[in-house]
Each structure stands twice: as C-alpha cells, then as structure tokens.
Amino acid sequence: MPLVPEHSGLRALVPERCGLRAFVLVLLVIGPLLLPLGYWLAPLALLLAAGLGWSQRPASIKGMWPQWWAMAALLSFGAVELATGLWHREVALAWPTAAAALLAAAMVPAATLLRPQLAWWWGGLALGGVGNGLWALWQVGVAGASRANGHGEVNAILFGNLALLTGLLCLAGLGWAWQQRWRRRWLVVLLLGATGGLLASALSGTRGGWLALPLATLVFYRAYLRGWPARWRWLTLGAVALLLVGLYLTPQSGVQQRVGVAMDEATDYLAGEPNGSVGTRLEMYRGALLLIAHTPWTGRGHGGYRDAMGELMAQGRVVPGMDRYWHGHNDLLDAWVRRGFPALLILLGLYLLPLWVFTPRLVATDPEIRSLAVAGLLLPVTFIDFGLSYAFFAYPIGIVVYGGWLAVVLACAASKAE
After folding, report:
1. Half-sphere exposure (CA, 13 Å, Cβ side) for 283?
2. HEC per residue, 364-397
3. Which of the ends of the chain has fewer CB neighbours closer than 10 A, N or C?
C-alpha cells in the first residue's frame, strides 16, 4: 500500500518551480552544520516552500499512517517539553527544544506536499558531506583549531556525529546511484560526500559516534552486501576495515589518541577514580539514576537538574563537579531525569517508528526503495548510538535534524510508492 495515494488533488499542492524545491531540500541537509542558525532557517524555508504550493487539501489521506505517527510523536515531544517547563516554572528554558519539536512536526506534511525527488535528496547529502569535510579541514589545518565544530551551540560532538551521519547516508544512496543513467558520476559524488562526512567526524575528535559503525554495517549488509558474491562482499568489508584502521593510525586525525584516553579513563573509573570525560559521564549516569528513583514521573526540570546534582554532591553521593552540566549526556537518561517518564516513552517512540516502517523495506526488490530504507534505518540507529554518550535531543539541532530528515525520507518513500 502506498504511503501517499495518487490523486489529482495532490498535484495541485506542489510548487511549480522544481528549482525552489530542490534548493530547499539541499538547504535542509547542509544548513544545520554549515550555516549559522541553519537548523532554524532551513526548516522555515521548507515550510515556506510548502505554503507557496498549498492550494487545496488532498482528497484522501489513506496510506499516510507513517507521517501521522511521526507528527504525533514530535508534537508529543514538544508538548512534554512545554508541560515540563510549566510544571517546574521554567517555560523560558523549555521553549527552544519545544519550538524545535513543533517545527519538526510541521516539516512532516510540508515535505510530503513538496514531493521531493531522490536526486535532490542524495545530491544534497553529497554536497553536505563534502562541505562538512572542507569546513573541518579548514578549521583544523588553517585556523589551527584542535577540534572541528559548527556554528553557535553546534559543538564538536554535535558537528562530528551529524557529519558522520551525513557520510553514512551518502553510502546509503549508492544503491540508488547504481541504477541511474549517469551511474559513475553519481557514485563518485556520493563517495566524495561519504569521505567528507567521515573526515569531518574524525577531525572533530568525536569518539562515541564511531560506535555506531558496527550497527550501520549490519544495516548495509542486510540491504546490499548480503546478495553479493562472496568475493566482492569480503573485498568491500576489507576496504571498509582498512579505511577505519587508516583513520585510527593517522596521527593527524587524533582518533587513536582519543580512543586511548577513553580506555584509560574507563579503567580509572572502574578503579574508583572518575577522571576525564568518560569517568565524568559514567558518574553523571549514576547520579541521574539516583535522581530518577526520587522523581520518576515529573523529572527535575530543565534547570532543576543541575541543582539536584548539586544536592547529591553536598550529600557526598556523587563526586564534585557534577553540577557543571545542564543535561545528562545520555538521551534516554536525560529525557527521564529532566522531563519525566512520559518523555522517555515518547523518545523511544521516535526511535522505534522508523525501525518499524523501514525494516521490512530493506529486502525490497526496488533498489531505490531499498536505499531509502537504509537511510530511514540509519537515522534511529545512529541517534541511538549518539545518545549513549551525549543528549542530542536536548538541543534544537538534534530534534530538527532527526525529525526533518525523517520527514524527507518518508516523503521520498511516499513518492516512490505511488
């Protein structure tokens, strides 16, 4: 059953100028990491473009259940953010993430109305991957930064992990590129985008995001490599392994040094000495669990979390310094400890929805549908991993990228299913 039905009414909702739609879709991909406030500007441009094409409501909404569920989950996320702010009298602190969730929810129908073409989606991702890589090279190689990052609140962790996701999505598009008339050109473009995304991630110095690669490899294996001849399958896996080893061994990437430091910090924590970022995170998780046990339903609030950690410090239940951080550095724990149990359930729903929608499509006979299924699965797989060591959904950019890119993948799948 198609995700969006074919009917004459829906055609009238599409802007006549494809150039505008292509520009908006590319902006949605490259804006969050490469433009100041791009994670606000790009969604607003998408809504504007969809509004320009709005002439009448579709005659039928049959088959749009993934979009409806996505909208409901994002709206619920925003509602919980506002409810938490009202309950704890911190509405001003709740507004940025609540607005991001409401904006992401609005992007779901907007992307469907625009009926994006796959070439715009994959081309935008490739451009974003190359741009991320060049931006990171300039920061580290020319400006002398120790870690590449984005603009404003887009720190090195957010920048590096989202750049890594961009690179992986470029690899997902190879199945689509193989079927195109200009096959070689598209393959080169997407491989350049993937290289740029991986390079930007390495130069950002992120460590936790790279733990997503084994799970991402399983997704690629299920969708693509499983049906290849054994020789090509093992050659591809070997090439990927060599690439990762090369990044690890290259001193300029800093990956080897940061991995070694992480292992030392984990060992110290197990010995009772919480040192460095790894030890601090593990201590924060322990403190969050202590706070959750006291207020599991309403949480501690957006600002009350830090005060509650200070109380635990004063009682000697956590080590000093835990009150310096305003979120829990783990998406699931942060949702629960600051916004309560309903927020945890909604976040789990946002993870599970694309897994439910796209997992059956990994074995689709149409390679274009399969490539979209890989992209749709990479979103929750990577965000679940990113959320193990950082709270991506505590930032507007994390909410907008997850919800907005999911909206585009659903819209592309809807167009292909017609």
Report:
1. 26
2. CCCHHHHHHHHHHHHHHHHHHHHHHHCCHHHCHH
3. N
